[in-house]
# Entry
Amino acid sequence: MIDEYQITECPSCHQSLLTPGPNGGQQLLCTLTNEGGVQENLDILPILTEEAYLHAYPEDRISRAFLELCREGDVSAVVDLLKSCNEPDSDDEEMDDEPATPKKSMDEILRYQDPIGDMQSGLHAAVAGNSREVAWLLLLLASQLPEMEFPALVYQQAASLGIMREDQTGKVDIRSLKDGQGRSAEQLAVELGGVWHGWPGSGRLTV
# Structure
């Protein structure tokens, strides 16, 4: 069903499969049976929506993976993904009959905003995931925050992971990106509080 999903109606009786969701949106409920048991009233619409989107825009798959790693706070995995942007395609991919998926640059992934995920950026995702480590990394790589504002530990960690800050002149500052509700990463941090105490008003999460 994930591979074939295109419409939101039953192919047999043509009735809509969608029902109103608890937050005013829509949901597609099903009963899922697998090796883990039975899950009733499981909303699979987000999964189907994502797969349908990635089927249409396969080049965004790595960008969405990047956002998920930012939410998880996995700094090493984020760096590995970004560094892979500079690696040449393998010979196997070049010989494949299928056309190659367009490859995105590191700058494009760093500034990617999710069109089916409230237009969140990597910085929004890091804030939502309460990961200050990832937030510092993204600020180092994709903002014009002055170098003196970074703790020395941030540079040490970046060096140990084999990634360096490049000239940001003329590039979009990740702090300027707004989500689908018009919020900067700082506004999201204000709403969440917790580990972000002291960050709002510092210039780290907005310009």
Q: What stands out?
A: The mean pLDDT is 88. The beta strands are 19-20, 26-27, 29-34, 37-43. The two ends are 44 Å apart (CA to CA).
